[in-house]
Structure formats: C-alpha cells, structure tokens
Specification:
Aspartate Aminotransferase, domain 1, Aspartate Aminotransferase, domain 2, 14 strands, globular, binds pyridoxal-5'-phosphate, alanine-glyoxylate transaminase activity, pyridoxal phosphate
Length: about 400
C-alpha cells in the first residue's frame, strides 16, 4: 500500500470526512424502537432544508439510479412522453432507464459541451399543443462533462410555453455543492444521492416532491412497490420507514447536514465556485481545454479536461494513479479516453486542490502529455488573492 492518504479526486464518491466516518461507526439500533424516530426525523427534516423545500423528501437505501427510477414510476403511466435533454452520459442513462420502463422519451440532442438550453425546451413544449409530454427531465450538474443546466430558467421556459409538464431534476452530483432551490425554482421532483456533495459513502438516494408531483402520483399507473412514495410517507411522518432503513448511513447523513449547517450553504457554494475557477485557470495555463464551452454553465463540482489530440486520457490517469496515488475521473461513453475529470466537490479545501492540481501537472509530465508547466502556480495565485476569497473582509 502506498503511504499517506489516497487522493480520491473523481467527481464522486467524494472524500468522506473523518467526522462522518465516526458518526457511521455508532452501534446500529432497533429501527422500530423509540430511539430511532429522532434519527429518522432529523434526517428527513434536515434534507428538506438542503433541498430548499417545505414539501416531503423520501430517502431510499439505494444508489442514485434508484431515485431516478422512483421519480418516474411514481408520477407517470406507460407510454407517457417525457422530454429529456442530452447533456452527457448521465442524461443518456436516465433516458435509457425511461425507455426500459415503457415511457416514450423525446431526447433533445446536445454536444456534451454545455448544459441544457431553456429556449430549445420552450420551443419543443410549444409544439406539443396536445400536452402529450408529461415531464421535462434535466440533469442539473452533468457529471460526465462538468456542465450545469440553468434550472430556474428552464422553469421559466416551461411556464412561458404554458405547458403543464412536471419538472424533474437530477441533482445527484450538485446537491450540497451548487446552489439549488427545489421550491423557489418550481421543481416537481428532485433526485439526489449521498456520495457527492453530501460527503457520504454511496448508498442513500432521495426524492424531494412537490404538491403537484404528489397529486400526479395518485393517477400514475407505472408499476411500483418498493419505490412507492405513499408507502413511505405515512411511516416517515413519525420518523420511521416501511422497511429496514440504512441506519448507520442515516447517522452519517445527520452529521453531514450538521457540517453543512455549520459552514452555511452559501459559503459551501462559494467555496466550490472558487475551486472550479482556480481549476479552470490551471487547465488554461497548462494550454489544455476545458470541455464545457459555455462560461455560464461552468461547474464548481468538477472540471472535465480535453486531452491533446493523439494522447490517451486513460493512460495519463493510470500514470497519475501509479506515481501519485490519485484517482481522477475517466471519460464516459462518447468521450472515453478523450477527457479526464478533476473532482473538486464535497469536503475539500484550498490545499487539497493545490495538491490535486500538482498531481495532475506531474502526471501530465510523467505521461509525456504536451503542456506548459505552471498551472498549479496560477491556481495558487488565484486562490491566494484576498479579493477573490472574501477573506480580507472576514
Ligand atoms: N446522475 C448523475 C448526475 C450522476 O453523477 C450519477 C452517478 O455518478 C448518477 C446519476 C447515477 O447514480 P448512481 O451511480 O449513484 O446510481
């Protein structure tokens, strides 16, 4: 085993802070006993705060994919049309899941270099005079590309088209790292997962549910049992679950929520934005290209970097892992071997970012990838400027 701590700089799972690992380490208790209700209620109430909603949140012991499925099966019926947007690999997987469920996804094609375009969504909805489209599904932070979709603008686009479709948003890699407001932005179902901005291991997923989505669930005819919201919401009122919950993960979740409250969500979001900006500055100083082309859609969660022509991103990642014990994200499906991804999400600070960028710069050198040295210095200069950090005023 290499000495020192492994650098887990993939865009999720993110580094799990010791505080959360210690919380998970407490003894498992009776999930139907009197002591459990407090754990369950704290987790459910805390998550409404993280999502920015006054409506219900359900928590599943599953990876994020389960919460994708739950959002669809609870609100839709066989053959329903759903408008989805090809922001990248994860939007494509959600579309494939919808197909397998017997839905009819209409896919707006994208080039994987920006978030969703609200105008394209509005135009497509305006064509749908019969209101056959029952939901618009968008990935907030597309983890395969590092592009963020403008959710509030997409809500406005749906309203401008006068269309009644539900708005469903995947925040699996954005919640707890990027600004997100379920109620204020008029989202009907928000999907999320534990292993990224929430700083937990993989294993919990979430749906935040609007009143309109709850009403839709009463008419929805896709088959469901384990994922059924109505099955959950009754026991949840008192802090219990209809089956055995992931007790120790809920301890960890309550600790994560406490950490987010202590730092303050706006400070968490600002920290990620700074780290995203410093990473992009380093990438440009190396003479490499950021995959996201739209500056309004840049991500504070991760930065995907385009490899110079003729060089393998996977070979570079393998060298970086071997020489510096750091895992970087790989290029997925359409961009396999063409990009690598630097995760700067979750429990992360300036020095962790400097070390991460140093690992990338040394890996580029060791793998013989053409680049200009000095990206780390540029990031350090940027991170250190008081005007950028707001620290001078603090
Ligand atoms: N959606 C996004 C944006 C993701 O980043 C991921 C996983 O990385 C998923 C969905 C799938 O979630 P999971 O792998 O937890 O099932």
């Amino acid at each position: 085993m290499p000495s020192g701590r492994h650098f887990l700089q993939i865009p999720g799972p993110s580094n799990v802070p010791d505080r959360i690992l210690r919380a998970i380490d407490f003894p498992t208790i009776d999930h139907r006993g009197p002591g459990f209700a407090e754990v369950g209620r704290a987790a459910l109430d805390g998550m409404t705060w993280v999502f920015g909603t006054e409506g219900p949140v359900v928590i599943y012991p599953s990876s994020g994919t389960g919460a994708w499925e739950a959002a669809l099966v609870n609100t839709l019926s066989p053959g329903d049309a759903v408008l989805m947007y090809e922001t990248g690999h994860f939007a494509t997987l959600w579309k494939q899941l919808a197909e397998r469920l017997g839905l009819n996804p209409l896919f707006i094609e994208g080039d994987w270099r920006s978030g969703a375009d609200p105008d394209a969504i509005e135009a497509r909805l305006k064509e749908d005079k019969a209101h056959a489209i029952k939901a618009v599904c968008v990935v907030h932070n597309e983890t395969s590309t590092g592009s963020v979709s403008p959710i509030a603008a997409i809500r406005r686009a749906i309203d401008a088209a006068g269309h009644p479709a539900l708005l469903m948003v995947d925040t699996i890699s954005s919640l707890g790292s990027l600004d997100y407001r379920h109620d204020e932005w008029g989202v009907d179902v928000t999907v999320s997962g534990s292993q990224k901005g929430l700083m937990l291991p993989p294993g919990l997923s979430f749906n935040a549910i609007s009143a309109k989505a709850l009403a839709a669930s009463e008419q929805a005819r896709l088959p469901k049992s384990y994922w059924a919201w109505d099955h959950m919401l009754g026991p949840n009122e008192k802090g219990y679950f209809p089956y055995t919950p992931a007790t120790n993960m809920l301890y960890g979740l309550n600790e994560a929520i406490a950490m987010l409250r202590e730092e303050g969500l706006s400070n968490v979001f600002a920290r990620h934005a700074r780290h995203g900006a410093a990473t992009r500055a380093a990438v440009r100083a190396w003479g490499l290209e950021v995959l996201c082309r739209n500056p309004n859609h840049y991500s504070g969660v991760l930065t995907a970097v385009v490899m110079p022509e003729g060089h393998s991103a996977d070979a570079f990642r393998a060298v970086t892992l071997k020489n510096y014990d750091m895992s970087l994200g790989n290029g997925l499906s359409k961009v396999t071997d063409r990009v690598f991804r630097i995760g700067h999400l979750g429990d992360f600070n300036d020095l962790m970012l400097c070390a991460t960028l140093a690992g990338v710069e040394m890996g580029l050198r060791d793998a013989g990838v053409p680049h200009k040295a000095g990206g780390v210095q540029v990031a350090m200069n940027q991170l250190g400027r008081a005007s950028d950090t707001g620290r001078a005023a603090a």
